[in-house]
Amino acid sequence: MIKVTPVMKPVSTECNINCDYCYHKILRILPEKINVMEDKILLNVIKNLSESKQNFFKFIWHGGEPTLAGVDFYERAIKHQKCVLKDRKFYNSIQTNGIAINSEWCDFLKKYDFSAGVSLDGPKKIHDKHRRFLDGKGTFDEVMKSIKLMSEKEINVGIVAVVTKESLGCEEEMLDFFCQNNLFRLNFSPAADFRENGELEDYSINPNQWGRFLFNIFKLWTKRNDPRLKIQLFDSLIQGLIGGESKLCVCRKDCSEFISINHKGEAFFCGRLLDREDFMIGDLNKNPIDYIFRNGGMLNDIQRRIACSDRMCEKCRWLEMCHNGCPVHRLKMGTNSFGHFYFCESMKIILPEIERYLDDYGLIDKERINCYNSE
Question: Which of 128, 155, 251, 366 has its CA 20 to 30 A from that of 339?
Answer without folding.
Answer: 366
